[in-house]
Amino acid sequence: MATIRKHRCPFCSKSFERDKLASHIDKYHDDMLNPDKGYTANRIVFDLCNKKEPIGAGQGICRICKKPTDWDENSVRYKSYCSDKCKQQARENYKDNMLRVYGKTTLLDDMQWQEEKMLANRSISGRYRWSDGTYKTYVGSYEKKFLEFCDVVLHLDSGDLLTPGPTIYYEYDGKEHTWITDAIYLPYNLVFDIKDGGDNRNNRDMPEYRAKQLAKEQVITDQGVYSYIRLTNNDFVQLLTIFAELKDAYMNDTEPKTISRIHENTAIAAIGGIPSLDSENGNVFITNYMNRNTFETGFAISNDIATDTVVARDKKTGKLKKVNSKELLEDCDFTIYKYIGNDSEAILRELYETYKSGQYVDYQYLPCLVTEFDQILTDDQLDFSAMLEEVDFDRIEENYNSIAATLQYQMEAVSNGKKPIVFDVLDPVKYEYKNRLLREYGDLTILQSMDGKYFAYNVMSCKRTKGVDSIYEITENMLRSIV
């Protein structure tokens, strides 16, 4: 299994994983910081990981005018635009991406026309008043609740969230169609399509409607310009999840690969998975499995950890085929690895071409495709590949648990007008244990809720973990999920 990369603290000789380094600096080198001038531990770590000089006082680059941009502690990265003028220019530039392909301009490309004409004709449209006094347009109750959540709970800067979002052209049944997206969050270049699907599905589940939905989502994913989320049923855990993913991606790269997430119980096709093999999101996962009854072994590849569809080798024909992952792994012991090399797009492209051509491949084709090995002698050889990292499902589960717990905690605060009542850990033995547990997590504390549950809490980001019956049940993965 690949070694997790560590970074050396610029103030001492110790090395830490990226998500622990900021807490170490806050706790042991706070005298070297100057938050009032934007010189924070998060900024130091970002500059260090992205090789920006001078470390802790680097600069971003405006996507429009290329001038320096300031640090944004909330999104833990440099701002994408240097001024409101450049944000507005970005808004005007949305149409250019598709116009370069189709070479035409119509009223549908004019954002002001969209807002004042098209949206005004919707009887359920309106204007939401942001906390700072600005207004955002919406075209339904789901969009209104989305805006309220972004404002009241997430406290997003109104200038960073634009409604509607960019206009996307797509083809369906040989004709060109126009899709006006609901919103875009500029710091992460994240486009939203807000639906009343999932647990509260509408009646538009006809094949044509769903085919159009897939066609337009395929276009926005293939473009690779925007990250994208189909947010269904105002399930804001979905929103917090992709924000966490994008935050982590931007901490590692100033311009990371785009991410697409589609949420619907009767999902069309996960754009992040390989039902459409030419949908690339920059991730590659390989599963090594063994059936407990037949002892047959094999490999499967996907580009989304959550997809139900993977690509595997058909043992009878020797060709690649798409299979349901749950059916494939039933009665199997398996390990999933994430490819951490730099050629994920090339791997996915070759995989797609091989699948499409229907050519014969041998048993070793899939594992050799994602590793540095020319030959696989034993299945556990994947454990020793420098190109792979075993997926930690416990950590993934805790990330989701913390997102859900944080959402509930924040919603209670909003509905009651104040934070829920919590208590400090006062028992001397448990207090000493808490200090030992949090020695490398300067921003975290452990609290107890009214129902007696213990949970870890990040005093800087206001994230929290799920509640557990005993303080001794709080794990390292739980702590890491809120850093």
How far is the N terminus from the C terminus? 24 Å
How many helical stretches? 14
By secondary-structure content and strand pairing, the structural class works out as: alpha+beta
Q: Beta-strand percentage?
A: 15-25%
**Strand arrangement, major sheet:** 19-18-17-16-20-21
- Give the biggest beta sheet: 6 strands, antiparallel
CA gyration radius, whole angstroms: 24 Å
Question: What is the strand tally?
Answer: 24
How would the global form be characterised? globular
Supply the number of structural domains: 4
> Average pLDDT, to the nearest integer?
78
Give the uncertain stretches in residue-range form: 97-113, 115-120, 198-205, 265-281
Q: Helical proportion?
A: 25-40%
Describe this structure in words.
It is a single chain. The chain is an alpha+beta fold. The protein has four domains: 6-58, no CATH class; 94-262, no CATH class; 285-390, endopeptidase fold (from Nostoc punctiforme) (Alpha-Beta Complex); 408-480, no CATH class. The chain has helices spanning 18-28, 41-50, 84-93, 96-102, 111-118, 141-153, 207-223, 236-252, 325-328, 344-357, 365-369, 393-416, 428-437, 476-480; strands at 6-8, 15-17, 60-61, 68-69, 71-72, 77-78, 126-129, 135-138, 161-162, 167-172, 175-180, 183-185, 190-195, 227-232, 260-262, 285-291, 297-302, 309-313, 320-324, 332-339, 388-390, 422-424, 444-449, 454-458. The strands form eight sheets. Strands 19-18-17-16-20-21 form a six-stranded antiparallel sheet. It has a five-stranded mixed sheet with strand order 9-12-13-14-15, sandwiched between helices. Strands 22-23-24 form a three-stranded antiparallel sheet, with no helix packed on it. It is globular, with a radius of gyration of 24 Å.
